[in-house]
Amino acid sequence: MEKQTERKRDYKKALYWLIGFTMVTTVMYYFDKQKVYKEEKPPFPIISLGEQKTQVFLGSYTWNDSEVKKELADLKDVNFKRVAYRDQIHIDFPEGKEPLYIAKGAYDPNGKATYPIPSMFNDESVSFLGNYPSILTLSLKAYWKNGKRAEYIVPLNVEPVAPEKEYLPANKGFYSLLGVYNGDSELNTAIHQQISEASPNFLMEYKGYVHIEMAQNYYRELQIESGPLYLLFYEENEVFRTD
């Protein structure tokens, strides 16, 4: 009888110990999971111009229960890496962690505020960056569901890439205008004005004027027989010329 009572007592002790251990383990697991949840950071993308990978910094973000504020001045070891111009910037997130939307912008020279890249420049048909020497800091703000968001800061030192022919536009989505004169007559400025008005100025690159002999010698592919005239190009093609 006493042995049976003692066995019951030992069984209860073991049961209480098991229950207590399970509860402690569960609580520890819960707090560890909460800690990991709170310390989790936004996914880090690979950002590149063509085959050229860029330096990327994580700026301010709101993620799970964490909210971190970080200014451009807080970043360390910023290197404005030299990259050759490419007409598009590629942003690749880990599979399954892609944001719903990315707002593209750039910091102003004093690094205190950002201004948006016009929406038309987010279109694949138009260049995201300008094909001219520039040192700039991109601000890419990504948004996920449930209020998650993060800013990615990308310092760049863009080197221009010359088009195949100097009369062609250097920037994707732009027009270029070349004037040819023969020395005996003036170019028709009215035609110049009409062409300029037909295309917004910020999408036009003016290539200046060349003498007809130079144009015939150096630009034989244009088959210029007489002048004066204007030639209008879009990307790699001639789209219009005056008589």
What does this structure look like?
The chain is an alpha+beta fold and 243 residues long. It has 2 domains: 46-159, no CATH class; 175-241. Helix content is 23%, strand content 33%. The protein is built from 3 helices and 14 strands. Mean pLDDT is 78; it is low at 29-37.
Could you write a compact summary of the structure shown?
This protein has 243 residues and is of the alpha+beta class. The chain has helices spanning 2-39, 189-198, 212-218; strands spanning 46-49, 52-53, 57-63, 66-68, 82-84, 90-92, 101-107, 114-116, 134-143, 149-159, 175-181, 204-211, 229-234, 237-241.
Q: Count the E strands.
A: 14
Order of helices and strands: HEEEEEEEEEEEHEHEE
pLDDT under 50 segments (min length 5)? 29-37
Q: Which structural class do the helices and strands define? A: alpha+beta
> Helical content, roughly?
10-25%
- Largest sheet, described in full? 7 strands, mixed
Task: Round the Cα radius of gyration to an integer and report it.
Answer: 32 Å
Overall number of domains: 2
The number of helical elements comes to 3
Distance between the first and last residues' Cα: 121 Å
Average the pLDDT over all residues and give the rounded result: 78
Gross geometry: elongated
Strand content: 25-35%
